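User: quick one - fold this with zinc ion bound?
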Amino acid sequence: MTFLYPGLGPFPGLSSDSDDHIARGYGAAWDIPYADGTYLRLARPGRIYSVGERGECGNHLSWEWYEGTDRHFMWYCHMEDLYYVQPGEEVKKARPVGIVGDSGLSTGSHVHWAYEINGVRQRLEDYEIVQEAQVARTAGQQRIIDVITVNMNQRLEEAKSDILAAKVHNELVARNINLAQGRLTVLDQEITHMVQLIAEQWPV
Ligand SMILES: [Zn+2]
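Assistant: Sure. Structure tokens for the protein plus zinc ion:
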């Protein structure tokens, strides 16, 4: 089973692992020292079970999902008192559900993350945890993506050469305008000169 890291942001490492928690007389859990204000998402989709203030845990959020008849249950502690979900709500995507805080028995902003299956505490060390959802692709899907990528790159190159051609064209147009202006100036001088000549030959 694969889980997402709880925070919507870089994973800062653990400040306390399962053994640390057990040594302090708690169930296995992880403490992750995210900055205060970091958005939290569900490590896995599920149904929100409870939110609110709860003793040492501070402001918490818990959720559950079933695999067969097995009940999987996770929760976060020490959050800000602000939730984007309600109990009973099904959350399918990794969208923000709350915010990292320092509530309850806590000595600095972090999230305390715990996991149970059928009431038995789990060690998160035994699971694969990733920052982004992994996208499984079939060979056919990958081939379509490859073809589209090649096609888009070709069109990008074409667009670049079109821009270059337009630049060259603009420079040519600018040069032609300069030439025409020069010819106009000469023509203007010639007309002035001819008017003078006419005036001299046929005085009024
Ligand atoms: Zn903890």
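One thing worth noting: Residues 16, 21, 29, 31, 112 surround zinc ion (CB under 6 Å).
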